[in-house]
Amino acid sequence: MVLELAGRLETKTAHAFEQKVIEHLSAGARQFVIDFKEVEFVSSAGLRVLLMLAKKIGVREGTGALALSSVNDAVKQVLDVSGFASFFTLAASPEAAIQEASRRASSPRILEQAARVLGVRKPPAAGSGGKAPDSEILNRAASILRSGPDQKPKKR
């Protein structure tokens, strides 16, 4: 979902932006690019909506993606000072943001994070340089999920 903003994202306009975001969330959207090409200013109210969106789609958990594109210097400064620049993917254009989000979503690092959360340890596989194949990680994670919370996963 690419959302194009214009003008100022502040107290007066943040509510309308939030309502639009909520509509898309309700429709099932979980991947967003916010195009800032025509945005001249972002206030704390605008940052709050971006943070709400990131939390609702699960950016940190890897269940959703959010990228900001075409951010000008003034908005970038607000993002830097607030610490938000490191939290969001920033890209030069909506197309670049989509590519970056796709690259991150398909990253093996996400599999590794999921395995770590599930308590799966990667044994070195023969000839793999110490890395287990992704399919093995997924199989082990699936085994843990199939076993109940009080049960131990089946040994292979």
Question: Can you characterise this structure?
Answer:
With 156 residues, the protein is an alpha/beta fold. Helix content is 49%, strand content 18%. It has six helices and four strands; from the N terminus they run βαβαβαβααα. A four-stranded parallel sheet has the order 1-2-3-4, with helices on both faces. Helix 2 links the parallel strand 2 (31-42) and strand 3 (65-69). Helix 1 (11-26) runs parallel beside helix 2 (44-57) and helix 5 packs parallel to helix 6. Mean pLDDT is 79; it is low at 148-154.
In short:
With 156 residues, the protein is an alpha/beta fold.
The figure for the number of domains is: 2
What is Rg? 19 Å
State the secondary-structure class.
alpha/beta
Find the CATH superfamily of the largest domain: STAS domain
Largest sheet: 4 strands, parallel
Series of secondary-structure elements, N-terminal to C-terminal: EHEHEHEHHH
CATH architecture term of the largest domain: 2-Layer Sandwich
Shape: globular
CATH class descriptor of the largest domain = Alpha Beta
Question: Can you tell me the CATH topology of the largest domain?
Answer: Transcription Regulator spoIIAA
| Widest β-sheet, arrangement of strands | 1-2-3-4
Mean pLDDT rating: 79
End-to-end Cα distance, whole Å, is: 41 Å
Proportion of residues in β-strands: 15-25%
Residue share in helix: 40-55%
Number of beta strands: 4
Q: Tell me the number of helical segments per DSSP (H or I, 4 or more residues long).
A: 6
Stretches with pLDDT under 50, minimum 5 residues: 148-154
